């Protein structure tokens, strides 16, 4: 199991556009076999950072999702929406494995 953590730098004047972008991806990750844990939007403190967490059974399955997302019409539309609105300034992606006690 691998959890993808994405830290977005967003345009704080375009939070509504980012919320729409995020709402597009939650069902898409699930469609490709992942489990989306949600987006976390600015509240108090920093106003231009948002987070996302989602899990795939393995890194290989995540990589298959990424590859297939570039061929999927709904994913392409979501990518295009972010480009058109410029709600995402930049992002960084990290991977974590869970530890249960």
Short characterization:
With 101 residues, the protein is of the alpha+beta class. The protein has three helices and four strands. The protein has one domain (2-91): Alpha-Beta Plaits.
Describe the structure.
The chain is an alpha+beta fold. The protein contains 3 helices and 4 strands; from the N terminus they run E-H-E-E-H-H-E. The chain has helices spanning 15-31, 59-69, 73-85, and strands spanning 2-10, 35-40, 49-56, 88-96. 19% of the residues are buried.
Helix content: 40-55%
> What would CATH call the architecture?
2-Layer Sandwich
Query: From the alpha-carbon coordinates, what is the Rg to the nearest angstrom?
Result: 14 Å
CATH topology: Alpha-Beta Plaits
Write the layout of secondary structure elements.
Blueprint: E1 2-10, H1 15-31, E2 35-40, E3 49-56, H2 59-69, H3 73-85, E4 88-96
Antiparallel strand pairs: 1-3, 1-4, 2-3
Helix pairs in contact: 1-3
Keywords, separated by commas or semicolons:
3 helices, four-stranded antiparallel beta sheet, Alpha-Beta Plaits, alpha+beta, 41% helix, 4 strands, 101 residues
